[in-house]
Amino acid sequence: MPDKPKPMDAAQQKQLVESYIDAYNRLDVAGMLQPLHQEVVFRNISNGEVDLTLTGKGSFRQQAEQTLQYFSQREQRVTDWHISVDKVEVQLDYSAVAALDFPNGLKAGDLLQLQGKSVFEFKDGLIASITDIS
Prior knowledge:
It holds the Pfam family SnoaL_2. InterPro entries: NTF2-like_dom_sf, SnoaL-like. The protein is α+β, with helices and mostly antiparallel strands. It has a single domain, classed as Nuclear Transport Factor 2, Chain: A. The chain is built from three helices and six strands; from the N terminus they run ααββαββββ. It has helices at 10-25, 29-33, 57-67, and strands at residues 36-46, 49-55, 71-83, 87-98, 111-123, 126-133. A six-stranded mixed sheet has the order 2-1-6-5-4-3. The longest helix is centred in the N-terminal third of the chain and has 16 residues, at 10-25. The protein is globular. The termini are far apart.
């Protein structure tokens, strides 16, 4: 009977999440993709509603490249870590500068600031799921 793969330790999980967030902050899509599982699932939840679900690295890449045009700079700053056996939850302060005018009234050059959290789950030594909640 084959050995069951052992779960990743907290340090490995944290390193993958830090790598992803660092690439995100640098607007580096290739770097964001590196720690992701081929079948990664990404969900965005705003005001309790799932408003975006993507499955697979290809879909994630396409969305990540598309959103680059929306902001001239952006930063996710981790304010708290919760690490358990199979997931990492980070509390975030998010800030971004709009690169264009948005339908909701945000204008190019305006600063957007929010707080939220991201939940990361793992498989095969990679990030298999990201849920952004704001």
